[in-house]
Amino acid sequence: MVVSHSKRKATQLPPPLVLVLLYASLIVAGTIGLKLPVATVAPIGWSDAIFTATSAVTVTGLAVLDTGRDFTIYGQIIICSMIQLGGLGLMTFAVLILSMLGLPIGFSNRIYLREDLNQTSATDLMALTKVIIRIVLLCELVGALVLSIVFIPDLGVAQGAWSAVFHSVSAFNNAGFSLYSDSLSQWAGNPLLNLTIILLFVIGGLGFTVIADVWQLRSWRKYSLHTKLMLFGTAILLVFSTLAFTLMEWNNPETLGGMNWGTKLVVSLFQAATPRTAGFNTVDMASLNDSTTLMFMILMVIGSGSTSTGGGIKVTTFIVLLLATIAFFKRQTAIDIFGRRLGADQIMKVLALAMVSLALIISSMFVMLVFHEGNFLDIAFETVSAFGTVGLSRGVTGDLDQIGRTIIMFIMFVGRVGPLTIGFVLATQKSKRISYPSGTVYLG
Amino acid sequence: MVVSHSKRKATQLPPPLVLVLLYASLIVAGTIGLKLPVATVAPIGWSDAIFTATSAVTVTGLAVLDTGRDFTIYGQIIICSMIQLGGLGLMTFAVLILSMLGLPIGFSNRIYLREDLNQTSATDLMALTKVIIRIVLLCELVGALVLSIVFIPDLGVAQGAWSAVFHSVSAFNNAGFSLYSDSLSQWAGNPLLNLTIILLFVIGGLGFTVIADVWQLRSWRKYSLHTKLMLFGTAILLVFSTLAFTLMEWNNPETLGGMNWGTKLVVSLFQAATPRTAGFNTVDMASLNDSTTLMFMILMVIGSGSTSTGGGIKVTTFIVLLLATIAFFKRQTAIDIFGRRLGADQIMKVLALAMVSLALIISSMFVMLVFHEGNFLDIAFETVSAFGTVGLSRGVTGDLDQIGRTIIMFIMFVGRVGPLTIGFVLATQKSKRISYPSGTVYLG
Ligand SMILES: [K+]
Ligand SMILES: [K+]
């Protein structure tokens, strides 16, 4: 009786709290793991350990240590595992929240989850997690095999194979961790590595529901509206930002300037894709033009897809914001897209999500500026990168003092847990209220 | 017959086009005026003349010349007149647009305007303009008299009286033009000047409808929802930003650091009020901390009131955005405030307005960064200042090359005409459409 009662209470913990506790526990475990003498080449401080663990679990990728040089193979395995658990936890939890919204979760003929989390049996959750794990491992395995073709000739069999596994996991989970201090800049011109890494993080960034749709249906016409918007939006964003990057950096001697045409194209595509929250880089972020840096910050805010391993306000949120604005000027009260209609309730959700994200980003930036000295643009970039769990840096991460590290860790955590918590709140039902007479406010 | 036909066509010009033509004509006239040899101490180029005219007509206040030193009294009178015409045109046009929205325009028992601009008689428009002119001149006259008390002892009767008139007009119209190269920094600690200037630009920034409400009704309970929100929001923003400014700049040796308590308070209040689009300054903008600079940019984007001489997305838009977000998390589909309800249609208007403004600000910033070299923060600040027609600068205005000047002029023009044009589009009626089945997009 007592056991059953406490069990019931446990399952009734608010899901956002479950998420926070899950991530906090993972970070604590990771910190302890990384503090073990066997994990590092030389002993590291608690501050280094907890920062690395937070960055790995939140799949951000900002690093105060050199992952390849300061950690032993055991330390690297711990980091890789934290990335994998953080990414899996994220996808599973996001799908759970969607199911609570009463939305179809992709596998249309196998509904694992009921509309209410309290009614979800452990069996359903296990089955769902199994499907997700299967998809994730398959993608990562294929990725690691292809990356081996690049890494083994360059680094030898053992180091090459491990590097392939590590970067495949890091890429699919949009973690941005690399074993090399200049990220993947050494292979900036290698088309096979670039395309593989891009494919991994773009697929990982599309989100479980989109992957499931594409996997099952194999026909554009049958895809859900969400899948269509994600595929369409991702393609448009990739094309647009590749073009913009090429144009703006073409003559920059520190980035594309000295490269040949082919390399310029490969680097541009990679850099255009990575800010929407992969976080790898093949050129030095601090060398980018200010205009490119601003574009990167915007892409970092947009982020990737729902139920994905990426962060940001999400591509669909961005599209709906754009469409809502256009619809308004066309004097429509709903958005018609791909033969489907999005009503005022969906638009209000987008507004709420965008406003909260914007408020979080601006307050984070504000706190960083108040408590940490440094160049405005570098700090703004670092903050947005942490909030969007992107992991790109203009070099601030290494210079952070204890206060700065604490703030960035907090922002990474909020950036990871926050949007999902908002998703949860959006998932709960509306309450009724007494109606006041209507009022008017002038806005123009 | 022919005359009547052409007359009918003229009155049917789209109002946004009328606004653009009106402002463009004023700028051309002002440019020619400022190019007259009598207007300047030494001959100036067309570029200087057109930039100054654009800044004055759009009541922005960014300056490439020293208004007090480079222009003669005649040149200063031309600038003052352009500010007055730009400000008056703005208020009149904004009220016109509100009347097209079918909204009460303040003077509840004297409706000068019909719901459709085409039905508005010239007599109605004249009557409205007369009321606005009467209010504006009264405020400016009182302001000039009080400012004389400060300026005449310091500058002598003639110069002091002219300075009082010029700064009163500039303040009420939120123009930010000053006859002194360091704006009003000489009088940073003078409470009478500070309070007068603040009162002038805050009242001018509340907007015609609010002034009319307060003038006529003299009781909080009778005020319209819009008036309540504007008064409430302005007060909250003033208190909050004064506190934040004091805290962040308290020990900055280049701003508050060397001042006594009283001066610190006066300067903080003035600086907290001026970014919401007055544009005067009593400390050097380039000496502010980066965190304060970020706060200023946010305040510049928020701006002042509808039907006022100020710019930005407007205080009410900002409040409704905040309330909509809060309402959403309280699971409400409408906003209840001061015993009135704002429905989904109003919230969608706010969303559209905020998105368009944000898009305009970011694209402006982007264009400036691509085409003009310089420090990121300084350029970002200058761009936001131009867009919000604020006029504060971290020193970029003087360094602008021809391209930079052209872009800033364009941004000032768009910042001035754009929001009103959006207001006009929002004022037009909705069309009906065939309804598609509803779709869903995941956002969290
Ligand atoms: K990342
Ligand atoms: K101004």
Automatic annotation (TrEMBL), chains A, B:
Regarding the membrane, this protein is recorded as: Multi-pass membrane protein
Q: Which InterPro entries match?
A: Cat_transpt (IPR003445), TrkH (IPR004772)
Per the UniProt record, which residue ranges are transmembrane?
A: 17-38, 44-65, 77-103, 131-153, 160-180, 192-217, 229-248, 296-329, 350-371, 407-427
Q: Which UniProt keywords apply?
A: Cell membrane, Ion transport, Membrane, Potassium, Potassium transport, Transmembrane, Transmembrane helix, Transport
Domain of life (superkingdom): Bacteria
Instruction: State whether keyword Transmembrane helix applies.
Output: yes
Where is the protein localized?
Cell membrane
The entry lists its GO molecular-function terms as:
potassium:chloride symporter activity
Signal peptide as annotated in the record: none
Q: Which GO terms describe its cellular component?
A: plasma membrane
**NCBIfam families in the record, alphabetically?**
2a38
Q: What is this protein called?
A: Trk system potassium uptake protein TrkH
Taxonomic source organism: Cohaesibacter marisflavi
